[in-house]
UniProtKB/TrEMBL annotation:
Catalytic residues of the enzyme: H450, C849
Organism this protein belongs to: Streptomyces guryensis
Protein name in the entry: Pyruvate, phosphate dikinase
Domain PEP-utilising enzyme mobile: 417-499
Enzyme Commission code(s) on record: 2.7.9.1
Domain PEP-utilising enzyme C-terminal: 533-885
PROSITE patterns (alphabetical): PEP_ENZYMES_PHOS_SITE
UniProt-annotated binding residues for substrate: R575, R630, E762, G783, T784, N785, D786
Cofactor(s) the protein requires to work: Mg(2+)
Keyword Kinase in record: yes
Keywords for this protein: ATP-binding, Kinase, Magnesium, Metal-binding, Nucleotide-binding, Pyruvate, Transferase
């Protein structure tokens, strides 16, 4: 296969092969936009290299052919002494990994061609500055030289000259610096800086390939769930220079505000500088709008291009550009990252502009973003001390102890502390600390600085460029206006939506989106309401599209009411064990300890009206909608006191010769019921089969509650669900008893109840014999928590804290199977059971009530296998509705 594509050969749909950057450079080239010519080496070439340690055999020749074509187009040769072509070598994977991989600029400069460049540009200083940048970047990224060594030499040169910024160094100073840099390379790398331009290029290409497996890149991919086997493409692009004087410069821009979604002029510009200077946030940029004063022609052209790009991509784009002596060049574009709130706003704005339709709008947002918007925010009315304001780079309200380095951030967060990572600016080495922190605060850099871009990607709160704060990382403190000093460990609060920084802990309030779902807020005019309006509209799109119904896991009227406000279409799982706790525990204890039938029946009789009342409340909260009540599931010992505690109490009483008959009896019962593997023991349907009267009491409570609601002109739609069934015989026995009780209640109350009886499918055997089980079940609800536990043999209560980190690190799975359904294993059992169940009973109702019911990716799976509904916790309901809508597009 072809390993190298000219920019004129690719297009935006080839991201797998050309990476995001390469595909979009090609797209812009073909749109006729000013892109410096170049070519892209495919991810396939990278994959071969990473797998075998060697570049594919044909690569060298293909690169040569493309290089010759490029040289012809540019009318100069790579590194040619009198008029050198210079190129950049940049990484570019399918998914953007900001700052995680390598880039080398100015390839082609050497001791000879630096003079040619000086002449060609008419600027000796520029040529030597470009050369020293090449040696520095090449030394660091290709030859592995410690980057600080170059920085220190640069600082020393500035100090010697008593200047503070690099632009004040003159050609002669830079020439000396080049000599110094070459010495550093020689000592540290044990080889000379290569003078052969082609060797420079080939080594740089290899370094970019290698950077795919750098520690930073790997960590980032794990965090972002980017597969490790994609590889990166490499873009070789002819250089244009933003550092050729005041009529040159470089910048980044967004076609709309990535934080609010508003249209306008958003971006940063830096005069007389090269691209990396902006992204790294090293020097202070000016707002893009000021470019209009600096260079009106380029500014107008840029605005025009931005419009072209938005209309072409039909989405927010971000852009990197360079102006070389008044000529504008596009160096990169991509569909830009945005905050969760902006995603919703932009999607509806684009619908209003007629650029996209409702279906497409649903693809522009996702459940994770909606979940993020449901986080609480700071209470604006709280009495707080604001000490600074930076740029609102990534929304959220974060409170924590200030720490000033990544190492401490990680260490403290491991010991359970919430921390805010405070830095002057971040760089890729801070990634660990950023992950560990609740939020990130920097005193320098704009919306496109490293901190901002990475934090937005991680959905982490970030305030950047809070310039009034003097951050002193060496002494681990920062000074705020007025002179107050924040020491390491002092609590601060940062608001990523407003950019405000506060001393101390600011109280938080619910998000406007939650207020909206709760019905306490409606669309209006202010900023928060714009977001609410957008969410409202997108939810309507999703509800119109989705086939899956969404129910709630709820055990009481309060949760049921909230679920209903959030859009639940019923209850998919009411766990009755929650009704056996609290002050009813004593009754349950008596039931478990009963020596005689009479005693047991007595306690069941006392429990009955309590259970019934619970159901009356639940059915009235969910009037008109289905409520699936699951009969008691957990092992009985969960309702008894802790065995160790009780043993101590008994021993103590014994030694004191206190009366302790009851305790002793209890202890004996606890011993009797003790199980080595309670999750695989006496629980679920097994309880119903060995404890006479337990399930029938629950069924009676359900039936009587339904009858009462019916007689009160309500519309109860109860469904009775049997847990942990492994074979149809279990279900048949329970069912027979239940049918009898229901018939009794119907007769006694003169009602027709139509109570459906179904089962959970949460054991492999149940899934494997689903065809038989469906004979006795009117519905299935997949209990994917237990099903995952039993299919994998993973204890659901233990493994996430014990060895899952190791599994995730080793890439055995990218996400816990308890969080996102394991499609290949657990999922294939689910789909087989769906098929077999429906074969037996075509109108079998199918749902899921494990945690996966509220997980975005899993919702898509459940849509695909044809379930009728998902059931999840009340707060996940909007997420499930949205994802069910997205799954149906
Ligand atoms: C399940 O196992 O998926 C389930 C919903 O039941 P529980 O979590 O109560 O065991
Ligand atoms: Mg279960």
């Amino acid at each position: 296969a072809k390993l190298v594509y000219d920019f004129t050969e690719g297009n935006k749909d080839l991201k797998d092969l050309l990476g995001g950057k390469g595909a979009n450079l090609a797209e812009m080239t073909n749109l006729g936009l000013p892109v410096p010519p170049g070519f892209t080496i495919t991810t396939e070439a990278c994959k071969v290299y990473l797998d075998s340690g060697e570049e594919p055999a044909a690569l060298r020749d293909e690169v040569s052919a493309h290089l010759v074509a490029l040289e012809d187009k540019m009318g100069k040769k790579l590194g040619q002494a009198d008029n050198p072509l210079l190129v950049s070598v940049r990484s570019g994977a399918k998914f953007s990994m900001p700052g995680m991989m390598d880039t080398v600029l100015n390839i082609g400069l050497s001791d000879r061609s630096v003079k040619g460049l000086a002449e060609q540009a008419g600027d000796e200083r520029f040529a030597w500055d470009s050369y020293r940048r090449l040696i520095q970047m090449f030394g660091k990224t290709v030859l592995g030289v410690e980057g600080d060594l170059f920085e220190e030499a640069l600082e020393a040169a500035k100090a010697a000259k008593k200047v503070t910024v690099d632009t004040e160094l003159e050609a002669a100073d830079l020439k000396k610096l080049v000599t110094k840099f070459k010495k550093i390379v020689k000592t540290e790398a044990g080889r000379d800086f290569p003078q052969d331009p082609r060797e420079q290029m080939d080594l740089a290409i290899k370094a970019v390939f290698d950077s795919w497996n750098g520690d930073r890149a790997k960590l980032y991919r794990r965090q972002e769930r980017i597969p490790h086997d994609l590889g990166t493409a490499v873009n070789v692009c002819s250089m244009v220079f933003g550092n050729l004087g005041p009529d040159s410069g470089t910048g980044v821009a967004f076609t709309r505000d990535p934080a609010s979604g508003h249209q306008g002029v958003y971006g940063d510009y830096l005069q007389n500088a090269q691209g990396e200077d902006v992204v790294a946030g090293i020097r202070n940029t000016v707002p893009l709008a000021e470019l209009e004063q600096i260079d009106k022609k380029s500014y107008d052209q840029l605005m025009q291009i931005m419009e072209t790009l938005e209309n072409h991509y039909k989405d927010l784009c971000d852009i990197e550009f360079t102006i070389e002596r008044g000529q504008l060049w596009m160096l990169q574009t991509r569909v830009g990252k945005r905050t969760a709130g902006a995603a919703f706003r932009i999607a509806t704005q684009l619908v209003d502009q007629g650029l996209i339709d409702e279906t497409e709008a649903l693809q522009r947002v996702n459940g994770a973003q909606l979940a993020q918007l449901m986080f609480p925010r700071f209470d604006e009315d709280a009495k707080v001390e604001k000490v600074g304001r930076g740029i609102a780079a990534s929304p959220g309200a974060a409170v924590g102890k200030a720490v000033f380095d990544s190492y401490t951030a990680v260490k403290w967060s491991r010991s359970g502390e919430k921390v805010i990572l405070v830095r002057r600016e971040t760089n890729p080495d801070d990634l660990d600390g950023m992950i560990a922190a609740e939020g990130i605060l920097t005193s320098r850099g704009g919306k496109t600085s490293h901190a901002a871009v990475v934090a937005r990607g991680m959905g982490k709160t970030c305030v950047c460029g809070a310039e009034e704060l003097e951050v002193d990382t060496k002494r681990r403190r920062m000074t705020v206006p007025g002179g107050h000093v924040v020491e390491e460990g002092d609590i601060i609060s940062i608001d990523g939506s407003s950019g405000k920084v506060y001393l101390g802990e600011v109280p938080v309030v619910p998000s406007p989106v939650v207020e909206y779902f709760e019905g306490r807020m409606h669309a209006g005019a202010n900023d928060a309401d714009e977001l609410v309006e957008a969410v409202h509209r997108i939810m309507a799109f999703a509800d119109r599209k989705r086939r899956l119904r969404v129910r709630a896991n709820a055990d009481n009227a309060e949760d049921a009411n909230r679920a209903r406000r959030f859009g639940a279409q019923g209850i998919g799982l009411c766990r009755t064990e929650h009704m056996f706790l609290g002050d009813r525990r004593e009754l349950v204890e008596r039931l478990i300890l009963a020596d005689t039938d009479a005693e047991r029946e007595e306690s069941l009789k006392e429990l009955l009206p309590l259970q019934k009342q619970d159901f009356v409340e639940l059915f009235s909260a969910m009037d008109g909608l289905p409520v699936t009540v699951r009969l008691l599931d957990p092992p009985l010992h969960e309702f008894l006191p802790d065995i160790t505690e009780l043993s101590v109490r008994v021993a103590l009483a014994e030694s004191r010769k206190d009366p302790h008959e009851n305790e002793l009896r209890l202890l004996q019962a606890v011993h009797r019921l003790h199980e080595q593997n309670p999750m695989l023991g006496l629980r679920g349907v097994r309880l119903g089969l060995v404890i006479p009267g337990l399930f029938t009491m629950q069924v009676r409570a359900i039936a009587e509650a339904a009858a009462e609601r019916k007689n009160a002109k309500g519309d109860p739609r109860a469904e009775i669900m049997i847990p942990l069934v492994g074979t149809v015989q279990e279900l048949e026995i329970v069912r027979e008893e239940a049918d009898q009780v229901i018939a009794e209640v119907e007769a006694a109350t003169g009602t027709q109840l139509k109570l459906a009886i179904g089962t959970m499918i949460e054991l492999p055997r149940a899934a494997l014999t689903a065809g038989q089980i469906a004979e006795a079940a009117e519905f299935f609800s997949f209990g994917t928590n237990d099903l995952t536990q039993t299919v994998w043999g993973f204890s659901r209560d233990d493994v996430e804290a014990s060895f899952f980190t190791a599994y995730l690190e080793k890439g055995i799975f990218g996400v816990s199977p308890f969080e996102t359904i394991d499609k290949d294993g657990v999922g294939s059992l689910v789909s087989a059971a769906v098929k077999a169940g429906r074969e037996t009973r075509p109108d079998l109702k199918l749902g899921v009530c494990g945690e996966h019911g509220g997980d975005p990716e899993s919702v898509h799976f459940f849509h695909e296998v044809g379930l009728d509904y998902v059931s999840c916790s009340p707060f996940r309901i909007p997420v499930a509705r949205l994802e069910a809508g997205r799954a149906a597009t």
